[in-house]
Amino acid sequence: MRWGLIPAWVKDPRKFTLLINARAETVREKPAFKNAVRRRRCLIPADGYYEWRASEQRKRPYFIHRRDGSPIGLAGVAETWIGPNGEEMDTVAIVTAPASADLAILHDRVPVTINASDFDRWLDCSVEDVDAVMPLMRRPDEGEFAWHEVSTRAANDDAQLILPITAEQREAEAAKPVGKPIPRRPAATTRDEGQGSLF
């Protein structure tokens, strides 16, 4: 699936803001998500996720994971967009909630994680009653997650990027000049009310 939900009613995806997150507080009411949360809930397996935090002259990445090391099931909602020529694209957004006090140090929002004992309940869309799963869309308990700083290479993709940064790596990264910010794509005309932000 492509990260960035496109509702079925969108005519041209190129003119629609990418919706990478669905806020748990409003997921039932937002036109973009209300059908998906009733009929197409999914789980996104992960070992953890990254969050970037401002520090000194540059942002620093942190790897956030369950304290006990177990895998995470991120709560997601999905849609299949069908184009005018019959083309199909499967898209997904992650459900987020306000952060617990400990995780709020890194960011004010966090992905909703579904406990393994609730996987079947979350995935069961046979009854379109969102009330039954609303209690699952909550922030993690304090102390449930841990985190550590990692290399700024986190924007790349290899297995070493979840390891804690060493003092030597941090020193070497600090010596590098801070690059120019990557230009952002112009925003689409659709208002997303923060749903397109990372968390």
Provide key terms for this protein:
mainly beta; three-stranded antiparallel β-sheet; hypothetical protein yedk fold; 3 helices; globular; six-stranded mixed β-sheet; 199 residues
Précis, in short:
The chain is mostly beta strands and 199 residues long. The chain has helices at 34-39, 119-123, 167-175; strands at 2-3, 21-23, 41-46, 49-55, 58-66, 72-82, 88-98, 109-111, 145-149. It has one domain (2-175): hypothetical protein yedk fold (Alpha-Beta Complex), CATH 3.90.1680.
Q: Structural class of the helix and strand makeup?
A: mainly beta
CATH class: Alpha Beta
The CATH architecture comes to Alpha-Beta Complex
Tell how many strands the DSSP assignment holds.
9
- Which fold name corresponds to the CATH topology? hypothetical protein yedk fold
Q: N- to C-terminal separation? A: 19 Å
Cα Rg: 18 Å
Q: Major sheet: size, sense and barrel closure?
A: 6 strands, mixed
Please tell me what the overall shape is.
globular
Taking pLDDT < 50 over at least 5 consecutive residues as the criterion, the unreliable ranges are: 181-192
Number of separate structural domains: 1
SSE sequence, one letter per element: EEHEEEEEEHEH
Mean pLDDT: 85
For CATH, the homologous superfamily is named as SOS response associated peptidase-like
H/I helix tally = 3
Roughly how much helix do the residues carry, as a percent range? 10-25%
Report the sheet-strand fraction.
25-35%
